[in-house]
Specification:
By secondary structure, the chain is mainly alpha-helical. The protein has helices at 3-31, 38-57, 59-71, 76-94, 97-120, 127-148, 152-160, 166-193, 207-216. The N and C termini lie far apart (47 Å).
């Protein structure tokens, strides 16, 4: 194992720790975050997201990757780890930091708008913030496409499903389209022929009882 590979392990461990912190912040914002904290939480999330991006795009990371790839001497697990580091580095360096920050803030704002829209059953109010997220994600896709020599869709797909391409997705959906409509029709006909489901009996359980039952489970 080379010194370059050890540096990469340390660097990507720090990036993973930031990802864990972002996960906790996201969980808190969806469960326990006090009202009125959304702006501060959006800033915290964007700051950590940009910090992780800066750690990934540090020019030294490219040097360490090249050195580790050229040196060899890694076992199968380490070699796979190195390939994944290279892939995530390729994605990170394709997108500028200001776009990473803008995208993070747009997603946070959209999440907050979605909550109020859901509570008020007013989903039209979500359109402006959702449009902003879509715009930023498209910009990310275009940046990655230019850097990776792929279509925007394939570049974004590769981030979550390495090596997957739209041709494979098209083939999968074509196969589903070949039998799903007929299958759904048969299921609906079968359901219509069955007796109606039995009605629920008894009074509705009060919320405290439901909460206690859920926690006991």
């Amino acid at each position: 194992m080379t010194a370059a590979y050890r540096e990469l392990e340390r660097r990507f461990a720090r990036i993973a720790a930031i990802g864990d912190a972002l996960g906790i912040l996201s969980w808190d914002s969806q469960t326990m975050m006090p009202d009125g904290s959304s702006d501060g939480r959006a800033e915290q999330t964007a700051t950590l997201t940009v910090l992780a991006h800066e750690l990934q795009t540090d020019p030294r990371v490219a040097d360490w990757l090249a050195t580790a790839e050229g040196a060899g001497g890694l076992d199968a697990w380490q070699a796979a780890n190195l390939r994944e580091m290279r892939r995530t580095h390729r994605h990170a360096t394709a997108v500028p930091a200001d776009l990473i920050e803008a995208t993070s803030k747009a997603i946070s704002a959209c999440e907050m708008t979605w909550r109020s829209a859901r509570a008020e059953s007013d989903f039209a109010k979500l359109l402006p913030s959702l449009s902003e997220v879509l715009c930023r994600v498209r910009e990310c896709g275009e940046a990655k496409a230019a850097a990776m020599g792929l279509s925007p869709y394939d570049a974004m797909l590769d981030e979550h499903d390495p090596g997957a391409r739209s041709e494979r997705i098209d083939a999968l959906f074509a196969g589903l389209a070949g039998f799903l409509p007929e299958l759904i029709g048969r299921v609906l006909d079968r359901q219509a022929a069955e007796p109606a489901p039995l009605p629920a009996r008894g009074a509705p359980s009060p919320s405290p009882t439901q909460k206690a039952l859920g926690r006991a489970g």
